């Protein structure tokens, strides 16, 4: 299964080798910039130009949580390997670590001087890597 998101504001899961669409999700009001499966495979996270990050439950086929807090488009999103945290990177120059269980922002990472374009948790670690339009990479301790 492959997961994609695009300018049509939809995410889609695709089956292979046939390439058929298995599921489609709608709810964002602007383009999708990122999408990622939860490590358990039961949910996914999406980021969008509408400034939100959304959690989707695949069995319910719908959005179960909308995370708001960025002031501009969200460029990237990812799950932590434990499945309890999501990270997002935004055009507003910040990144956020979201606690999915409490449904709130745990940390806002500030320090880049331009948009934050990508974010990743290092595997099985509390370290986060961000890249920015300010031409820097940063490592953050998210504990």
Automatic annotation (TrEMBL):
**What keywords sit in the KW lines?**
Repeat, WD repeat
**CC per GO annotation:** axonemal central apparatus
Q: List, alphabetically, the SMART domains matched.
A: WD40
Each WD repeat, start to end: 25-66, 67-108, 109-143
What InterPro entries does the database record attribute to this sequence?
Answer: WD-F-box_domain-protein, WD40/YVTN_repeat-like_dom_sf, WD40_PAC1, WD40_repeat_CS, WD40_repeat_dom_sf, WD40_rpt
Biological process terms from the Gene Ontology for this record are: axoneme assembly
Q: Which protein is depicted? A: SPG16 protein
Species per Swiss-Prot/TrEMBL record: Erpornis zantholeuca
């Amino acid at each position: 299964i492959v997961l994609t998101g695009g300018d049509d504001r939809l995410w889609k899961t695709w089956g292979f080798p046939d390439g058929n669409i298995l599921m489609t999700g709608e709810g964002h009001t602007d383009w999708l910039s990122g999408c990622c499966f939860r490590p358990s495979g039961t949910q996914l996270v999406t980021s969008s130009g509408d400034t939100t990050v959304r959690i989707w439950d695949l069995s319910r086929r719908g959005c179960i949580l909308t995370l708001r807090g960025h002031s501009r488009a969200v460029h990237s999103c990812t799950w932590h390997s434990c499945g309890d945290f999501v990270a997002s990177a935004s055009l507003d120059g910040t990144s956020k670590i979201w606690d999915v269980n409490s449904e709130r922002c745990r940390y806002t990472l500030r320090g880049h001087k331009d948009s934050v374009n990508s974010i990743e948790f290092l595997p099985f670690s509390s370290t986060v890597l961000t890249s920015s339009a300010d031409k820097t990479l940063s490592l953050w301790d998210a504990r």
